[in-house]
Specification:
Oligomer: homodimer
Helix content of chain A: 40-55%
Largest sheet of chain A: 2 strands, antiparallel
Number of helices of chain A: 7
Strand order of the largest sheet of chain A: 1-2
CATH architecture of chain A: Orthogonal Bundle
Strand content of chain A: 5-15%
Structural class of chain A: mainly alpha
CATH class of chain A: Mainly Alpha
Order of helices and strands of chain A: HHHEEHHHH
Number of domains of chain A: 1
Largest interface: A-B, 48 and 48 residues
Distance between the termini of chain A: 34 Å
Number of strands of chain A: 2
CATH superfamily of chain A: Winged helix-like DNA-binding domain superfamily/Winged helix DNA-binding domain
Shape of chain A: elongated
Amino acid sequence: MSLIFSRQCEYALQAMLYISAQEPGKFTNINEISERLDIPMPFLGKTLQLLVQDRILSSLKGPRGGFKLAKDPSEIALFHVVDAIDGTDFLTSCVLGFPECSTKTPCPMHQEWGGLRDRVFQMLANKTIADISKEITDSKQLRTKLKLG
Amino acid sequence: MSLIFSRQCEYALQAMLYISAQEPGKFTNINEISERLDIPMPFLGKTLQLLVQDRILSSLKGPRGGFKLAKDPSEIALFHVVDAIDGTDFLTSCVLGFPECSTKTPCPMHQEWGGLRDRVFQMLANKTIADISKEITDSKQLRTKLKLG
DNA sequence: CATATATCAGACATTTCTATCTGAATATTA
DNA sequence: TAATATTCAGATAGAAATGTCTGATATATG
C-alpha cells in the first residue's frame, strides 16, 4: 500500500479540523470526536496526547474536560501536526529507499522527486488550521463531512 | 512514518533499475541483485514474482536463469511497477483518510492535494525504464549507486 | 467531601507488513 | 541421464503499526 500519512496521522489531522471548528476555547472530549469521525476512541486518545506533548493541543481532565487548541489556529500549520505524529523523514529519505541518496549521490528519481516533495512541504507548511477552519465555516459540505452542525 | 511507496515497492523499483542496466535480454538472478542492492533474497524473489505475473518481467529457471525485462524498456513506465506492487489506491483515496471524499464531497485538502497527486502520477506515468536506463548509462554516480561495473 | 467524568500511562492483543524456511518444479550443463 | 542451479509455491516467523483494556490521576459539580 502506498500512502502519504500514517493512519494515526490522518486521525490527528481529522481531529484537529474537528476541534478547530468548535467554539474557540471550548474543550472537546475524545468520546464525541471518535463517535463523529468514526475513530477508535483509545487510539485517538493516545494520538491526541502526542499533540498535547507537542504543545499543539492542551487538555483538561474531568467533567467538561477534553482538548482544545493550545495556540492561535493561525500559528498551527498542518506540517506541525504531521511532524508530531509521523516525523519529517519523508523530507530527506530517498523515494526509492537507497540508504545514501543526496544531491551529490542522487538516485535516478532524486531530482524529480525533490521538486514534488518541496511542493508537498510548502503546502503543509503554508496551510494553517485557521485557513482550513475558515474553509469549513464557509462550506456546508465540509461541515457535513466533519459531522458538524 | 510517512512514506510514498511500501518497502516492497522500493525493492521492486531498485531491482527493475538494476536489471534494466544489464545487457538487454540477459537473465539476472536474484542472488546477484539481493547482494548488490542489499535486499533480503527470499523477499526479493517473491517481489519479482509479482512483476512476472504482471508481465513486466519474464523469468527462467535453472542455471543461467533469472529475470529479464518482459518488454521493451520504453514500454515500462514506473507507474506499472508501482501498480503491480502497491496498487493505485493512492490515486483515489483521501489524503486525510475520510471514507467518502470526492469532487462533490471534498475534504479540506481535496483540491490542493489533487494537484500534487496528479503531478506524482504524471511523473510515474511518463518516466519509463528506458529513460532511467539512459540516465544510468550516462552517469557514473548512478552506476555506483546501483553497484554496476 | 463524594461522585461522576474525563485524560493519562502502561500493558496487552490484533492485524498488516516484512522476512525466512522448506521443498517442489524446471532448465542447463557435463 | 545425473548433478546443479535457479525460480516458484506455500507455510511459518518476526516486526511494526494499529487497536484494546485496566486502572491511576485530576477536575467539576452537587
